[in-house]
Amino acid sequence: MRVGSELSAEEKRGGEALAETAGEGPGEGPARGTQSVRRALQLLRRVAKCNDHGIKLAQLVRDSGLDRATAYRLLCCLVDEQFVDRDAEHLYRLGPQAVLLGSLLPQPTPLLRRFVPTMKRIGRIGGDTVFLMMRQGDLVYCAHREEGSSPIKILTTNIGQRRLIGTGTGGRAVLGLMDPAEIAAIHARNAAQYAENGLAVEQLLQTGVAAREQGCMVTFDAFGEVGVAGFGIAFRMGEHAMGALSIATLTARFGYERQHRLRQLMETELRALGLQPAQ
Length: 279
What we know:
Elements: H1 9-21, H2 30-49, H3 57-64, H4 68-80, E1 84-86, E2 92-94, H5 96-103, H6 110-126, E3 129-136, E4 139-146, E5 162-164, H7 168-175, H8 180-189, H9 191-196, H10 201-214, E6 217-220, E7 228-237, E8 241-250, H11 256-272
Antiparallel strand pairs: 1-2, 3-4, 3-8, 4-5, 6-7, 7-8
Helix pairs in contact: 1-4, 2-4, 7-10, 8-10
């Protein structure tokens, strides 16, 4: 952790407030301790959500609703324990201990243990390749892919591949879970890359509205793949995590009736997992 001369003005204010509230007195107890853990985890999740670009203390305070002194005290602890890192520009990102814990997860991960049987059923019944796309900051990444029973395999995305939110079927479906201000902020941070894909902020906002109103996303010829169609449904996991299940198929075999059957199948499977599909 940096010495006082290296702290930003906002962090110095946090430190001054911390000195006034240090040793919070006889009210400290099991309930208070549990509250502190929850607040620290809340900050850790928000840092992870903005990990690609980093996040300032002031933004964490605004997003979390915590007072500056509490947020600063908890962040200092997370920095000391190396779960959070603070760079020379006073931006917070995940630290090495957070990354290490993720790498120690057993294989397959709990996420895959939960979703793989569902994806296998969708692939077997529907016949198409099924993708699990999870949000990671301004991106979605392919956490898993299951090939369907059809002899023609549409493999548009590889496991581990990352795409900007709003590109690809799953990435477009996820826009339906986000408010317009968040969508605009993501576009602003990645304006050059969106321009390369020919996507203006107005298009992302319109896609978000369509995904919310329809409760799903249907795409045709994404990424220049002529004759390829996609169908995706987004979902939330807890307060912060969001993702989408999507399929890739041939446009020729993706009429309205088949879209309807796939939607029913995917919504049923998501509800069986205890997840509420986007509405």
